[in-house]
Amino acid sequence: MVAKIAKNLGFPEISETIYIQDVATEEEMKTARNIRVTEGKHVIPVPTFAIKKDFSGFLLDPLQIFKSTGKGNKPYIAEKSIIRPTFSYIGNFQISDNVFKQIIEYIGEKLEEIYKIHRIIIKKNSDYNGGIYIYIEVIVEFGYNILSTMTKFKTKIKKEIERLTSMNVLDMNIIVKSVHYEVK
Fold first, then answer.
1. How many domains does the chain fold into?
2. Predicted TM-score (pTM) of this structure
3. Please, which residues have CB within 8 angstroms of residue 154's CB and are 6 or more apart in sequence?
4. 175 and 109, same structural domain?
5. Which of 45, 63, 78 is the last residue of a domain?
6. What is the span of the domain harbouring residue 21?
7. Angle at CA 138, nearest 5°, toward 133 and 143?
8. Could you tell me if 40 and 105 lie in one domain?
9. Residue 50 located in a structural domain
10. Which residue, 26, 3, 35, 27, is CA-closest to 16?
11. pLDDT (tens digit, 9 = 90+) per residue, 16-29?
12. Could you write out the DSSP letters of every residue in 58-120?
């Protein structure tokens, strides 16, 4: 199968093949097979911490993509597993700023303390693998502690962006532009 794939992609002939039996135990292979069949995910027999330090900017965990079925309908989450090693020669790998913005907006919608996200600016480090800088302007609901709300919001954003995209969040500034107060 590997030879066919390499040929179809126009790659040179495979010079060495490493079989899964050579690097994983029978128990690990059964577990991986079970996860692939029941959850539709592929398992790599390498600890995440051994890969992640070298993989900033490359997806390791399943990427959750927010999709909508039309105006007025609630978005749903579709999952895709994408893994790309640093030694890949296929070309540049980029994550659209919209991906980061959608993650931030989704988190903001789930927090009752956030009335509205006014503006999001994403800036990528010049070498791209270094991570991203995030600038956010928000409107908060009246009655909540702004400092604790922004700390919670910032923590959730950093955690989810790093989990979903494996990009390092190098710095994040959140500015509270105003407070929303609804007169009843």
1. 2
2. 0.53
3. 172, 174
4. yes
5. 45
6. 1-45
7. 135
8. no
9. no
10. 3
11. 877 778 777 788 78
12. S--SPEEEEE-SSTTSPPEEEEE-----TT--S------HHHHHHHHHHHHHH-TTEEEEEEE
| Residue 147 resides in a domain | yes
Give the dihedral sign, CA 137/141/144/149. Answer: negative
**pLDDT tens, position by position, 131-161:** 889 999 999 999 999 999 999 999 999 999 9
Domain assignment present for residue 58? The answer is no
From CA 149, how far away is CA 165, in angstroms rounded? 24
141-150 — which CB contacts under 8 Å span 24+ positions?
A: 141/112, 141/113, 141/114, 141/115, 141/179, 141/180, 142/179, 142/180, 142/181, 142/182, 144/113, 146/176, 146/179, 149/111, 149/113, 149/114, 150/174, 150/176
Report the alpha-carbon distance of residue 157 to residue 67 in Å, rounded: 19
Question: What CATH number has the domain bearing residue 156?
Answer: 3.30.70.1350
End-to-end CA distance of the chain: 67
Determine, yes or no, domain membership for 143.
yes
Q: Does the CA dihedral 97-123-170-105 come out positive or negative?
A: negative
Reading the block at residue 109, the tokens are 């919608």
